[in-house]
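Weekly modeling sync, notes
Attendees: AB, CL, MP (scribe)

Item 1: holo prediction request
CL wants a bound-state model with fe (ii) ion before deciding which constructs to order. AB pointed out that an apo prediction alone won't tell us much about the pocket. Agreed to run with the ligand included and paste results into these notes for async review.

Input as submitted:
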Amino acid sequence: MAQISSPPTKEIPRFDISQSVSMLFPTLLVVYDWPDSDALNKELAELLLAREKSMAKNGMQRSNAGGWQSPGNLITWPEEAFQTLKWRIETLVLNLTDQIVRDTGHKRTFRLTMDAWGNINRNGEYNVVHTHPNCMWSGCYYVQKGNPDPAIRQNGLLEMLDPREAANYLAVDNTILDGREFVDNVPGRMLLWPSWMKHMVHPFVGTGDRISIAYNVNVIEEQPQQ
Ligand SMILES: [Fe+2]
């Protein structure tokens, strides 16, 4: 329990203040672990490694420092694995939409537009701090972890950056109001966050291939017929 250094003039009563505290402006992060993903991930990894070889000259430069990024039309690629991934993204976004929309008393219908691209990072490669402009939700699906050196802290981890400027300007250290949010790249894990939220990927130090698929999604509400 918190103490004050000089004795109070009167005894301080302690009570449950939680009823009087609200947390304003929360920022959403979805972390969903898809079950039964091993076979899909193996297939996605093989396909992306093959694409990297065949499309080497068509790689994109986005937030990546090193590494390979595919063009953003991955969901149009014909292999079933990419169609399964597209379905997984749609499923998560539409369930999230159900969760956040207010009830208007009328049926509300939404459709999605989407870009997605593969990422392969190897030893020393990372993604600088960035946002994903011109969309609503962004996210990532983890295909393969590679073999990160366990001696390196935050090796290859995604870090979400607190959007509240100077929120860590707290005189008291180590409170629940100040924190850094790291997300482990567990294969089969799918994330969603608001596209405006800054994030980065810490350098991957190790052997093998760190493979993920990133995406941007827009949610468009269909207007009811008059
Ligand atoms: Fe990103």
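Recorded for review: Residues 63, 130, 132, 199, 214 surround fe (ii) ion (CB under 6 Å).
Action items: CL to compare against the apo run; MP to circulate these notes.
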